[in-house]
Design brief:
- This protein has about 180 residues and is mostly helical.
- The protein has a domain of about 100 residues.
- Helices cover about 85% and strands about 0% of the residues.
- The chain is rod-shaped, with a radius of gyration of 43 Å.
């Protein structure tokens, strides 16, 4: 016999005391309360199916949520590279157009004063672009901001090209006025 059994046998009289009066009544009451609570929470087959659907939907949502930031990073990188390419193209085209305007002013087509005014107007447009860049830094995935930035470049290039075309037309008209018509 091991030591624990000896202790129980020697102290058996301490374990044989009767419960207090009303103990079994209180215990029965608690069982009835627990049983009535259990009946109120019983799940019907409909609730079981609904619970399974909720778990499936939440799992799918978590899967999409944790999967999409990786693809969002790729999309953002692609958008940034596309924006960078567009920015490079339009900036070069605008700078070439401004050089052409400077060359025309040096040739006497238009004046240097007009050229300074054109550059001033374009620099005012640049201040609006600074606001777009700040918004882009705050919201790099916003397509509206990216489109607005590209539209800015397109508009600026259109302005430079329109002025350049107008000056070329003036040059052409001046050349025709000074030509000697044949008789």
């Amino acid at each position: 016999m091991d030591e624990l059994d000896k202790i129980f046998i020697e102290n058996r009289h301490e374990f044989e005391e009767e419960p207090l009066d009303g103990h079994f009544d209180r215990f029965g009451e608690r069982l009835r309360l627990a049983e009535s609570k259990r009946k109120g929470i019983q799940l019907t087959p409909f609730l079981k199916v609904a619970a399974v659907l909720v778990i499936i939907l939440l799992s799918a949502n978590l899967y999409v949520h944790f999967r999409s930031p990786k693809s969002g990073i790729k999309e953002t990188a692609v958008a940034k590279s596309d924006l960078g390419e567009a920015s490079f193209y339009y900036t070069n085209s605008i700078n070439n157009g401004i050089r052409d305007l400077e060359r025309m002013a040096n040739e006497g087509i238009g004046s240097h004063k007009e050229l300074v005014q054109i550059k001033h107007e374009l620099s005012e447009m640049d201040s609006l672009f600074v606001n777009l860049q700040a918004e882009y830094k705050a919201n790099p995935n916003d397509e509206r901001i990216i489109n607005a930035m590209i539209e800015y470049y397109q508009t600026k290039l259109d302005i430079v090209n329109t002025i350049k075309t107008d000056l070329e037309n003036v040059k052409h008209l001046k050349g025709k006025k000074h030509e000697n018509p044949e008789i």
